[in-house]
Structures
1.
Amino acid sequence: MKLFRARARRQSTRRFDPLDASGSVAGPRGWRFNDLATEVLYTAEVEALAILEVAIRPGFETITEILIATIEVPDGAIAGLDDIGFELPPNWDVRPAADDSRRIARRFLDAIASRPPDARPAGLRVPSVLSGSDFNVLLDPSRKSEFRAKLTGRIPFGNLRATGS
C-alpha cells in the first residue's frame, strides 16, 4: 500500500526523513491522535491530504516549499478502527484537539503489542478532520524497517501564497 507524508520546509529545515516520527511529539501537547509521550508516523492515503495537513498548520507563511514522500507498507498491514475494536471519542474532530483524541495512537500501539508479530498491524486508518472522504494512517514507528520510503516531490510554496493585482 502506498501512503504519503509531507513536510514543510523552511530556510533552516534539516533533512527530511519520512520515517522519522520525532516531530509527532512536538508542539505543546502533541497532535490530533497522539500525545507528547507517543511517537507515531502521520501519513495520508491521498497525496493532496498530506499536503493540506501541513499547509494548514500555524506558521504556514514561513514555508518555502513542501516536501512529499511516498511510504510503501506491506499490503494488509493497515487496520481500521473496527478491526481493533475502537470507536473515536465524540469530540475527536474539535479544534484544538481534545485530550481523549490524543490517546488514540497510544491505545492502538498498546492494543497491538499483545498480538503475535504476524498478526500485528503496522498502522491504523483514521478519518481526516479536513476531508470527510479521505483518511490518514497512523504508522507504528517501531516497524519502520518494514517500510520503503522515498522523496517523490517538492512543491514551491511561496508562489501559492502570493496574490496578484
2.
Amino acid sequence: MNVDDHVKSSGQSSLGLSTRLNVNYKMQKRQVEIKGLHASIKLTLKDKDEKTVVEKDLPANSFVLNFMRLLYTAMTASTHNVTDTNGSVVTAKLAKIEQHVHYEVEYKETEYDRYIAGYQAWAPKEDDSHGVMVGGGTTTVTEEDYRLEAKIPNGLGSGQMIYLYSRVGETQTVGNEAHLFITRSFINHSGDSIMVREVGVAVMQVSPTANILIIRDLVEETEVPNDYTLDVQYTLEITV
C-alpha cells in the first residue's frame, strides 16, 4: 500500500471505531548518489562541414577483467597472465624500456635515447591496434572479452574508417569529482554509411609488446554516413 492509499483508507482504532486519517505531507525528492569509479561515453556525429548533427550521452558499464589484472600488476609490481587482442595469452607487467630514436629532417640527422613505460591508451593517427576503438558487433559483453567482436579497421576501403589520434587528457578535478577523458575521432571516407554498435579501449603494453582490451561497451546503434566524423569520448570519473 502506498502513502496515498494509506491516507485515503479507513482504519480501526483501539476502540473498534472507524476513523479517517487526515494527514498533510510533503513529497520529498530523493536522489541516489553514485560514488566510486564509474564511466560514461559521449558520441558526437559531425557532418562534412564539422557541424554537430547528433550527440549521445551513454553509460559505460563494461570494464573487463583485463582492467583488474593490469591494475593488480601496477599495484604489486608483479605479473599476471592476460589475453591480448589477438587472443594470445601474454604476461602483463608494468615495465620501462629504453628506446633509441633516429630520424632525419632536411639532411640533418638527430638521434637520442628515450624511456617508455606504462600501459598506453594514447595512440598515433591510423593506428587501430590500441586506444579508443569502434566496431559493429552486438554480442553481449562478458568479463572475459579481450577484443571488440567486429572492430572497424583503419582505412579508406569498404567498412573502414580513418582513426585519428587517441588522446588521454589531463585529470580534471571539480569539487568532489575527478575526471579523466580518453577521446578519438573516426572519419568515414569508405563511400558508404557504416554502423557503429560497440566501442572500447585497449592499452599497449611496451614490454613484452601487447595490446590489451580493458573496456568494451555496446552502444546505441549510430549510423556514420560517408564523409561524416564520429567523435568518441570516454570519461572516467571518481566521486568521493
3.
Amino acid sequence: MLMTVITAIVIGFLAVGYTKNEPEALNIYLISSILPAVITIVLTGAIFMVKLQTKIDEKGIQYGFRPFQKKLRLASWEEIDSVYIRKYKALSEFGGWGYKFSLKGRGKVYNTKGNMGIQIVFKDGKKTLIGTQKPNEVKQIIATYTSKKTSYEI
C-alpha cells in the first residue's frame, strides 16, 4: 500500500510540475522527471508480482519468493527437528515483512502479510518461519507428512 501511495504522489507531482512549467522549460522538466517516475512505477509493479510460494510434500517444506528464487529452498523432513503453526508479530520479532532474519535468535522469516506462520526448527538449532494465510490447512498437511506431533499456538 505504501508503494502505491508513493507512486501516486510521484505521478501527482509530475502532473502539477508539467502544468506549471513554461513551454521552453518543458523538455528539460520531462527529461529530468521521467526516470524517477519510471523507476517508481517499475518497483511498485515488481513488488505486486512477488509471491511467497510454499509447497509441502513427501520431500519436506519448500519455500521462496517468486520470481526472485527460481528454485525453492527445501527444508527436508530429515533435517527438521520440529514444525508447527504459530502466531507471530512481524514488526517486533523480525522488523517487518519480506525476507528477514532476527538478531535475537528467532532465525529467518519469509512473509508477506498476516501474523500466522509455519515455524521450522532444524536439528542444528536454526529456525525459519514461513508466513501462511491458511494455518489450519497447513497444519493438516504437515500432519500427513510427519509422524511428529505438531502443535497449534496462538
